Amino acid sequence: GESVGLHLPTLSVQEGDNSIINCAYSNSASDYFIWYKQESGKGPQFIIDIRSNMDKRQGQRVTVLLNKTVKHLSLQIAATQPGDSAVYFCAENRPGGGADGLTFGKGTHLIIQP
Amino acid sequence: DTGVSQNPRHKITKRGQNVTFRCDPISEHNRLYWYRQTLGQGPEFLTYFQNEAQLEKSRLLSDRFSAERPKGSFSTLEIQRTEQGDSAMYLCASSLDGWGVSENIQYFGAGTRLSVL
Question: Which residue in A49, A101, A43 sits closest to B50, CA to CA?
């Protein structure tokens, strides 16, 4: 069964607001997590990653938070822009399961309203 | 660096035909992955190569599917006797793995969209 899931299939936010996209995972042995952005007709684009020995990592306008206690991952996008419209996937790398292939969730479609 | 390149971008075929896709990874990357993505779903892992060695296959990779990476550079994915259920986006990704590399970020190509009629 799927171990990486999203809480919301669609998230609509106003341009300029902050967005928070959530993800739950079930395998406590997973040690590496990645967020990808996928625009229509394109392949997934790397946004940010985090290892299980961290609980927060920041990039440019994005922050990933990892809560291992409840097996929850979130992506925060600051000051959302029209170009942020896409489907966002979280993915996990399970040690010893599926080699180094990532396990993806179903994705959250982020819609930016003007 | 031109990124991961996949050809063709689109392929339409009739059921029962064979198709082959090509992936050119980022030049210095030693790992290459194939995924399949259906509409509304996240990518699903199919197989991966470390240089020219195919190290892992998902149970999704039926015996009609075969992947090769003969010289450890580009890879091909062939589907024999295609079925309508094979219609999907086939994504290729590559990464750099080895001593001193702390992250194993997989970079994806734009994919090949297969439609089986």
Answer: A101
Nearest by CB to A43, from B41, B44, B111: name it.
B111
Q: Which of B7, B9, B34, B37 to mutate to test the interface with A (most CBs of A within 10 A)?
A: B37
**Which of A47, A104, A106, A108 would best serve as a mutation to test chain B binding (most B beta carbons within 10 A)?**
A104
Instruction: Kindly state the helix (H) or strand (E) to which residue B50 belongs, with its residue range.
Output: strand B44-50
Asked if B1 reaches chain A (Cβ–Cβ under 8 Å), the answer is no
* Candidates A43, A49, A106; nearest CB to B105: A49
Q: What is the pLDDT along chain B (117 residues), one digit of tens a residue?
A: 579 999 999 999 999 999 999 999 999 899 999 999 998 899 999 999 999 999 888 888 899 999 999 988 999 999 999 999 999 999 999 998 766 655 678 999 999 999 999
Q: What is the number of other CB atoms lying within 10 angstroms of the CB of residue A23?
A: 26
Does B43 sit within 8 Å of A49, measured CB to CB?
A: no
The b/e string for B38-74 (b: 16+ C-beta within 10 A; e otherwise) is eeebbbbbbbbbbeeebebbbeebeeebebebeeeeb
Show the tokens assigned to A50: 């985090």
B74 φ/ψ angles, rounded to the nearest 5 degrees:
-75, 160
